[in-house]
Write a structure and sequence with these properties.
- With 205 residues, the protein is an alpha/beta fold.
- It has 11 helices and 5 strands.
- A 5-stranded parallel β-sheet has the order 2-1-3-4-5, sandwiched between helices.
- One of its GO terms (molecular function) is DNA binding.
């Protein structure tokens, strides 16, 4: 297994390399910024996983993630950070990141997360996912809707027709139409487009 680790904190980077290489099954290349990571991808290639510090020089938010993911030698790219807003984590995953690794993870858990992602899986700590779900559920719009109405609204936000939503939820089309009518009334939407815009602006999905 071949891992590229990019972090501008020397001590943390060296410690992480030591943890990852301790099993004897992994080789690492370590750099201190995004430009160094891109150069390492050019020179070495063939990495199973690229691990980028979200706050290191050159990253510019998620732009660094997408830049690394576009490289032919980086099929799997993950972020790590001491602190990152949950919305950043979810946006990163939506872009196709292999995962998000908090620097506060115990060494054993961190190494397991790296192996997990290098093997082709996605890793995000459960508490981040759960907290994000609680944030969405706490939104005033979400509190107005039933669980089924939220599922239907998600379908509308994704641009799906009633027939497709009915198929996804294993319900009849007339039932979906009724849910749509009810959620329009509850969130103050006049049509499907407006309902979708309301859902997106509220970051419900």
């Amino acid at each position: 297994m071949k891992i590229l680790i990019a972090d501008d904190h020397d001590l943390l980077r060296d410690t992480l390399v030591a943890f990852v290489e301790a099993s004897g099954e992994t080789t690492t290349v370590a750099v201190s910024d995004l430009d160094g990571a891109i150069n390492a991808l050019d020179v070495h290639g063939g990495f199973d996983l690229v691990l980028l510090d979200y706050n290191m020089p050159g990253m510019q938010g998620l732009d660094g993630l997408t830049r690394a993911m576009a490289h032919v030698s980086a099929p799997r790219v993950a972020l790590m950070s001491g602190e990152a807003p949950r919305d950043v984590v979810h946006r990163a995953m939506g872009l196709g990141a292999a995962g998000f690794v908090p620097k506060t993870l115990p060494a054993k858990s961190l190494v397991n997360a790296v192996r997990f992602m290098a093997a082709g899986e996605q890793f995000v700590p459960a508490e981040l996912l759960n907290d994000a779900g609680e944030d969405r559920a706490a939104h005033p719009i979400a509190q107005k809707l039933t669980k089924r109405e939220m599922q239907v609204l998600k379908g509308l936000a994704e641009g799906k027709a009633n027939k497709q939503i009915a198929r996804d939820l294993n319900l009849s089309e007339p039932t979906i139409k009724l849910h749509v009518k009810n959620l329009y009334r509850k969130i103050g939407a006049a049509n499907r487009t407006q309902a979708a815009l309301i859902a997106r602006e509220a970051a419900l999905f």
